Amino acid sequence: MKKIALLNGPNLDRLGKREPEIYGSMSLKELESRMIAEAEALGFALHCFQSNHEGALIDEISRIAGDGFNAGIINPAGFTHTSVALRDALSGSGIDWIEVHISNIHRRERFRRHSYTAGACIGQIAGLGLEGYSAALRFLAARDS
């Protein structure tokens, strides 16, 4: 079975609690459960990982790069706008990544409009709420079928 990674960055462990008017009311656990079921229906295994720590995300990218993953979805959250190291990990992983943002980062504060990590991804989805994760999964599944 083909494997897709789903990585979420800082503060996304607070989905459903943190600013529900921006990020919605679904918890991260609920989102992951929904995504796992969607991936299985498409014939893929989905591995989920979340961390508030940049180094842990980089370590996970390195680990999965050597474990047969060929595609991934990442919401780098605040690291989108700050982390060259995370960008380098994505770029060097050999994995095709889709960057996902729940809110439309291009309509928010000016500092959120620049993504260091997008250049290491094959695409970016922003502003579709949690549906952006499903759209990314469907795209990767159709491409890798």
Keywords:
alpha/beta, 5 helices, globular
Written account of the structure:
The chain is α/β, with parallel strands linked by helices and 145 residues long. It has five helices and five strands; from the N terminus they run βααβαβαββα. It has a five-stranded parallel beta sheet with strand order 2-1-3-4-5, sandwiched between helices. α4 (84-91) links the parallel β3 (71-75) and β4 (96-101). The N and C termini lie close together (11 Å). The model has no long low-confidence stretch (mean pLDDT 93).
Task: Write the SSE topology.
Blueprint: E1 2-8, H1 20-23, H2 28-41, E2 44-50, H3 54-65, E3 71-75, H4 84-91, E4 96-101, E5 123-126, H5 131-144
Parallel strand pairs: 1-2, 1-3, 3-4, 4-5
Helix pairs in contact: 3-4
Strand content: 15-25%
Q: How far from one another are the termini?
A: 11 Å
Q: Helix/strand/pairing class, anyone?
A: alpha/beta
Task: Specify Rg, calculated over alpha carbons.
Answer: 14 Å
Order of helices and strands: EHHEHEHEEH
Mean pLDDT: 93
Largest beta-sheet details: 5 strands, parallel
Q: What are the segments in which pLDDT stays under 50 over at least 5 consecutive residues?
A: none
Concise summary:
With 145 residues, this protein is an alpha/beta fold. The protein has helices spanning 20-23, 28-41, 54-65, 84-91, 131-144; strands at 2-8, 44-50, 71-75, 96-101, 123-126. The longest helix is centred in the N-terminal third of the chain and has 14 residues, at 28-41.
